Amino acid sequence: MHSSSLFSEATPPIVIVNTAHSGSRLLTSILVDAGVYMGSNVSGSLDCLEMVPLVQHAILSSRSGVPTGNELRDPESRRLAKCHIGKHLQNIGQAERWEWKLCETLLIVPLIKAYFPQAKFVHLIRDGRDVALSPFVAPKAPLWRKVYFGSSELSSWHGFPMTQRAYRAHGMLFNAHRWRYHVDLARGFSRWLGVPA
Fold first, then answer.
1. Do 74 and 115 touch, CB atoms closer than 8 A?
2. Are the C-beta atoms of 144 and 138 separated by less than 8 Å?
3. CA 190 to chain centre
4. pLDDT in tens, 4-28
5. How far, in Å, are 5, 59, 85, 136 from residue 149 at the CA level?
């Protein structure tokens, strides 16, 4: 069975892709008001907690932090997808459309596309200056280094160590880089999907 058939009965999702602090909470609220199902297990910022294990596993297990879709052959990715997307859809009821909000989903667009070939992707871009001024998570852990830089091997960036102290002092620079990296990544995915960026 091809992995995409795990969800052959589900309608295609709406997938919001963006870097953190770009307004996805507001957009998700608008979609919910329009009748789009977003799940029942969400954080205070409306992040879909059911999707966290799958997204984090896909990012950490890929060489550059950006899965290519080949992870469909990975039994752990299949297990996590079946378990957590299944749980996310458990209470969908009569909703005709569904979505989730989790900013790091941006990094796994090829994997989501492989599971849901008809998925609708919405790329949300906020002014990078505003994003740069919004505090986020320091890139200390391997996951966050891949989210910021596409590599968990970096110990420093432009002479700044991957520490909370460096992030407190230079967070605006780290955030600006993350915004640029994510916007470029999403635009590259748009071209790959055949959509004008």
1. no
2. yes
3. 15
4. 456 767 788 999 999 999 999 999 9
5. 33, 12, 27, 15
